[in-house]
Amino acid sequence: MQLLDVTELNTSFFTDGNVLRAVNSVSFSIPKGEIFGLVGESGCGKTMTALSIMRLVQPPGRIVNGQVIFEGKDLLLLSEREMEEVRGNRIGMIFQEPMSALNPVFRVGDQISEAIIIHKKAGKKEAKESAIELLRQVGFDDPGKRYAQYPHQLSGGQRQRILIGIAISCGPSLVIADEPTTALDVATESQIINLLQGLVDSSGMSMIFITHNLNIMRKFGRRIGIMYAGRMLEQNFVDAFFKEPLHPYSKGLLSSIYGLMGDQKRLTAIPGSVPRLAELPGGCTFHPRCPYVMPACREEEPVMKEIGKGQWVRCYLY
Amino acid sequence: MGQVLSVLDLRKVYEVKRSVFSVKKDIINAVSGVSLDLDQGKTTGIVGESGSGKSTLARCILLLERPDGGSIYFTGKDLLGLPKDELKALRKKMQIIFQDPYSSLNPRKKVFDAIAEPLLFHGIVGKQEAGNRVIEILKDVGLDESFANKYPHEMSGGQRQRVAIGRALTTGPALVIADEPVSSLDVSIQSQIVNLFLDIKERTDIAMLFVSHDLNVVRFVSDEIVVMYKGRVVEAGTKDEVFLNPLHPYTKMLINAAKGEFFRKDDEAAFDGDRGCAYYPRCEQRKPACRDAVPQLTGSKEHKVACFPEG
Predict the structure, then answer these.
(1) What percent of chain A has pLDDT over 70?
(2) Does B262 sit within 8 Å of A194, measured CB to CB?
(3) Fewer CB within 10 A of the terminal residue: chain B, N end or C end?
(4) Burial B176-196 (b: 16+ CB within 10 A, else e)
(5) Which tens digit of pLDDT belongs to each residue from B225-274?
(6) For residues B47 and B215, what is the distance between their CA atoms, to the nearest angstrom?
(7) Which CATH superfamily hosts domain A2-90+173-313?
(8) Residue A260: its pLDDT value, please?
(9) Is the dihedral of CA B197, B201, B203, B204 positive or negative?
């Protein structure tokens, strides 16, 4: 039984007669208790996929079609009111920039309590007690003191801990973390990743971890999805992916990183640059940069194919 | 091989008001007592996280910020003691490449003008030759002539950074400082630009300071590495020594993170930070002695570390 099952999700932006397909036929699923890494370069549609699942896409963007089955219900069919019950309550979200996601004029503890009062219909006193317990869970030794502090009194890593506290305050079964460590230093980044892993292990929740940094996923999460120009190009188990990635784009990304760690004299770079959504090439979107390009790749876009259990790739090589 | 740059005991201090209304000021030692040497044709990587002082160091060396102490010798001349006109003449021999090619190029200037400007300003070529020279430079950084007529907004981040690199090379500099030159680029573009830096290294005998928080990138382009933490050099040495035999706990942590080994124990110690080693609170090998004195950078030319020995 999957906790989340996304099928053929399409989200587009409608501007000046143009249709930009930001999320293009994306499908994936996450079982209970698993971390799924959603990886890609800027503009590949990973954040838009997350916002679509939360139904937070703003106009001129719109979810065109698809299915997002979460805990047995299709989120895309819920009324706005029912969706509000899901957001925050059943699905928590952590954003990249911890400074802008917190309100600078309220004490951080009250910002956690607020979430509990709204979603759990708890009383003030009860909410405060839960908030202090949450502060302890996200790694503060002195939760009582932290409760009364304002965001500017905390470091970037501490603010991110507060946001994690808010995201898990209502005991969600899924947390979507969108580049939660990108604005942080390496050491703080590793602390946050440790914390998230610990929370997943202890609570049994699932997580979508969005990142542009492939390196993070090496020891984190069970499955990984690679996005490019709005499409999912590969889905794989983390172990198998880092041993032998399937899609030529994945291979290129990985050799960029491995190359940096190895002893070669030159990096095997992926030529060209990421296409803009407004001017995507025909056929496979990656074909102009692909070293294995064949005539068929220019004609028609390949479909996602399951080549082994849980291993999917969108490429004619398979 | 000649020495291009020698920095001795460089210091930079910033005073910051405690709050908007406060009269009291905190003193921040952005760079405290940094020394380094750089030879012709060599690249030194400066690694550290944000706030380590690596960018301030780079800016001080180019005198974009006035250092508060120490000395900078560039091709044998003491920059801080030089009269203005002589300094101006030396400037064309020192160039910088910034992190963000979106803001470092003038959006109203075509690529041609951006590159021709320093050529004409420094009188390197006349107006007639400028055209050919610009196209040569574009070729050197992997762009064809059609780019000469483009504006920055018509190019991708990677192409813009190529132009910025080309522009830095126009004056035939002896020293190029690259401050996080690939950090704002996508992974697939980063490796192209790293390769471009390697080409430049092979083709010219420019001395380069390569500042980055990304250890993997630094390792790839550098001959020597300097690791900074809170304004001080904590470890320095040849690339292989620092990478294969790291001595400072901070360097070890950075190398592990670069390999995707993020898991470590999380126990920061309380510490006021006035007397002891700045890394004490986060150090996995801290000892009581580390709280009382700042360890000095000691060792051979191949490998130096600022950490109290075991036991």
Answers:
(1) 98
(2) yes
(3) C
(4) bbbbbbbebbbbbbbbbbbbb
(5) 999 999 999 999 999 999 999 999 999 988 888 777 766 555 566 655 56
(6) 7
(7) P-loop containing nucleotide triphosphate hydrolases (3.40.50.300)
(8) 59
(9) positive
Tell whether B233 is within 8 A of chain A (Cβ).
no
The per-residue pLDDT for A255 is: 83
Burial bucket for residue B126 (CB in 10 Å: 0-12, 13-18, 19+): exposed
**What percentage of chain B has pLDDT greater than the value 90?**
52
Contact B262, B84 (CB under 8 A): no
* DSSP reduced 3-state for A17: coil
On the question of pLDDT at A299 being above 70, the answer is: yes
Determine, for residues A194 and B216 on separate chains, whether the beta-carbon distance falls below 8 Å.
Answer: no
Of residues B191, B213, B261, nearest to A267 (C-beta): B191
Cα radius of gyration (chain A): 21
Rounded CA-CA distance A26/B2 in Å is 57
The end-to-end CA distance of chain B, in Å, is 41
Token pair recorded at residue A233: 């190009």
Residue burial B84-109, b: 16+ Cβ < 10 Å; e: rest: eeeeeebebbbbbbbbbbeebbeeee
CB contact under 8 A, A260 and B194: yes
CATH class assigned to B3-93+171-268:
alpha beta
What is the per-residue pLDDT across A173-208, written as a single tens digit (0 to 9) for each? 999 999 998 878 887 888 889 899 999 999 999 999
Q: Is the ipTM of this complex over 0.85?
A: no
Nearest-CB residue to A139 (from B259, B266, B282)? B266
Contact A222, A237 (CB under 8 A): yes
Rounded to whole angstroms, how far apart are CA atoms B311 and B308? 9
Dihedral sign of CA atoms A60, A63, A53, A48 in order? negative
Q: Where are the domains of chain A?
A: 2-90+173-313, 101-169
By C-alpha distance, which of B103, B196, B254, B9 is closest to A185? B254
Per DSSP, A45 falls in state S
- B220 interfaces chain A, CB cutoff of 8 Å: yes
CA pair distance A180, A94, nearest whole angstrom? 6
Would you say residue A42 has pLDDT above 70?
A: yes
Residue segments in chain B with a per-residue pLDDT below the cut of 50: 311
Q: Output the CA torsion B114→B160→B258→B267 (10° steps).
A: 80
Task: Select from B159, B194, B254 the Cβ nearest to the Cβ of A186.
Answer: B254
**A274 close to A230: Cβ distance less than 8 angstroms:** no
Separation of alpha carbons B232 and B220, rounded Å: 23
Q: What is the mean pLDDT of chain B?
A: 88
